[in-house]
Design a protein that fits this description.
Elements (H helix, E strand, L loop, with lengths): L2 H27 L3 E5 L5 H7 L8 E6 L3 H8 L3 H7 L4 H13 L5 E7 L14 E8 L5 E6 L5 H19 L13
Length: 183
């Protein structure tokens, strides 16, 4: 097996482990999780639903690839998209808030970014992803990452991985920035 496949397998295994940990954290907090995904096209919700028994912690996933889907399914405002674009902090925030409001979840993870190979610009390069997280009873938060442009699959997997880590951090599951357990 060549190195890129090996790296991909490790990443998929790591994503599965993070997804399992997030579902266990949701179970401990007695909440469901929802996702609002653009550039990942459902990879985050797929990672969670790959786990047996996930139906007791996963409520739903919104795949909102187009701006119309973001507006219709999540309530993202047209004015937000016009002013900031789909790949922005305000859009990621509204996606997360919309997913939480339109579900029975207690936590919602949202991602919107440029996975490439096209679509990047000087201001918004390929690899830029905005993450949104909404947790019932707390203000929604956003953060961005610009992943190395190692191809579309790499960017999408790293986006999935980071979203799961954000969820773990929000639920205070004793996780470090890289996703590994705190000592």
């Amino acid at each position: 097996m060549n190195e890129p496949d090996d790296v991909g397998e490790v990443t998929r295994t790591e994503i599965g482990t993070l997804a399992d940990r997030l579902l266990k954290a949701c179970a401990r907090h007695k909440i469901l999780v929802a996702t609002a995904e653009s550039c990942t096209g459902g990879l985050i919700i797929a990672a969670m639903t790959d786990i047996p028994g996930s139906s007791s912690m996963v409520d739903r996933g919104f795949v909102t690839y187009s701006n119309e889907a973001k507006m219709e399914m999540l309530g993202v405002r047209a004015a937000t998209l016009e002013a900031y674009g789909a790949v922005s902090s305000p859009t990621a925030r509204e996606m997360a808030i919309g997913a939480l409001a339109r579900s029975h979840a207690g936590i919602a993870l949202a991602v919107t970014g440029i996975a490439g190979p096209d679509g990047g610009s000087a201001e918004k390069p390929v690899g830029l992803v905005w993450f949104g997280l909404a947790l019932k009873g707390k203000p929604a938060i956003t953060e961005s990452r610009t992943f190395e442009n190692n191809g579309r699959d790499f960017i999408r997997r790293e986006t999935c991985r980071h979203a799961l880590i954000m969820g773990l951090r929000a639920l205070d599951d004793h996780v470090q920035a890289d996703g590994s357990p705190r000592p």
